[in-house]
Design goal:
With about 475 residues, the chain is an all-alpha fold. The protein contains 21 helices and 2 strands. The protein has a domain of about 220 residues. The longest helix has 30 residues. The relative contact order is 0.09.
Length: about 475
Amino acid sequence: MVNTLPYLSFIPAHVLMGFAILFFFLAKAVPFLRRLPASLIFFLVMAGAFWLETMGSGSKAVFFDMIQVDSYSRLYNQIFFIAIAVTILMMVNNDEINEEINWEIYGLLATVCLGMMLMTSATNLLMTVVAIELVSIPSYVLVALNRKLPVSKEASLKYVLFGSFAAGIMVYGMSLIFGLTGTLDFAGLWKGLGAYSSAGTAIYFLAILMTISGMVFKIAAVPFHFWCPDAYQAAPTPITAFLSTAPKVAGLALLMRFFSYHLTIQKADLTLILSILAMATMTIGNLAALRQSDIKRMLAYSSISHAGFLLMGIAVLNATGRGVVFFYIPIYLLMNLGAFMAVIYLSQGDRFDIASYAGMVKKKPLLVVGFTVCLFSLAGLPPFAGFIGKFYLFKVVIEEGLYLLAVVAAVNSVISLFYYIGVIKVMIIDTEDRPSKDVQAGGFPVVFVTACAISIVFFGLYWVPLLNWADKVRLLF
């Protein structure tokens, strides 16, 4: 007889799945529910799930030991709830999405959130596949929901094709690992791969590379990054902001948990793999961003390059490196969410070309100043929090002796300055070629972007709270 009590520790996931069903089916069938404020209800659901996670304690293995519910997963789940809550606020008064399908959209977001929760808790490759697909499949639909941009359907199809390709490679790699080790459990498979018969062979590297393909697909790392610019450009901007943050953080959390079980004898080989992946990702992302004239595509390539920087912390394969990633993640969320909130309200209608931002400082000075702070921080300039995050990433890879990785990252930091400063120049220095309509922005976006900018400056000058938080997470893991 199976003891069901441990499954109660996964109550927030049950709550989300229940409301996803409610949003998908009952709201469609019951006219009364359609008249209720979907945004408010889903926001309250996120607040309730956040509270439930804060009440959790201890560590439990559930679902036949395929999921580990612990403080590490709870902390990341809270980050996901916050990111979705901000996405809800972005969707309010945004006309890129048809309000008549709000219930269905929130059902999709709830399903994505459930998948991200499983990604941070998974300790088995089978559960990893289920979690990644739970995130990917609803995301394909969300990308296609921009009613102002018919090309969003094409971008969604590209996303589907790349996602299916990455998933197929990942499953094949898992089959190789199972053939080599006889297990799909994280701890067991690394012990099996460390056996003399397979360690260091071609099949060993092939199995690892193919298996992590699905994981790096979620963080838009090279070579599974091609879907990202088209999807980000075509999706409704609140969905773009969400996809650039929460699923990427979930992918990083999954990678850190997966590689934390590696054996010491495997460290050199795995560090080489992850270092090459990090260098390729940040370089291709930055070089491609230089040529972009669309702000959403530019931020997409910026997101790709930041995935490369965050992989630096994972590549060292130790607790210090993971701690630096934990340190950088809140900073990354502040920078990206603040930037996309500014983009939503600075863009005129469906125009997202950077040239349309000319002279915008005269119309919305507070939004432009907040957006500028976010961009400077993304570039890694002092005295902003992005500089401190990159400083610790450089510090940890240099201490580990990965000098080539540090040099490549430094060059990429310089390259990124060109396209970030280019946007700032257009907003502040350039003048409009022809008069355009005034940008209408309510009080909330200005307050939100300003709060993000103030937080970025504060943590750039005094980052001890983030260091304490990162140390706490590292000890929990």
